[in-house]
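Lab notebook: predicted structure, single chain.

Context: the supervisor wants predicted structures on file for every construct in the current expression panel, including those that have not yet been purified. This is the next one on the list. No modifications to the sequence; it matches the entry in the shared construct table.
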Amino acid sequence: MDNMTPMINTVTRVTLVLMAGLLMGWALHHETREFTLGMTLGLVAGLVNFRYLAVKVRRVTQSIASNEGNAFSLGFVTRISFAILVTMFAVKIEHFSLVATISGVFIPQLLAIPAGIYLSVKNKL
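Prediction complete. Output recorded below exactly as produced.
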């Protein structure tokens, strides 16, 4: 896939739909409020990390394509620091499920796999 933008937009839309469903679950089902809040917090952090990684990948590819000699990185330290910050927030405030928060951080990255497969099959047809 030459252009990442459709995949990024697809993952963003699916993640936002998941967050909307989780927030409705938080409002309507009181027994799972801790889980839904934790998962929503994790999805927000995961989506921010996913979109930040996309920006960094674009910058790296532009740097390589234009033959600039700049040193580059994919912002791993920034992304892991943000994930640790969100995890610490979930630990400190007891209204968030820690397990749901940590699993929510990884969901947008995992959604990129089926989104990429779907878009590549869709483009070949």
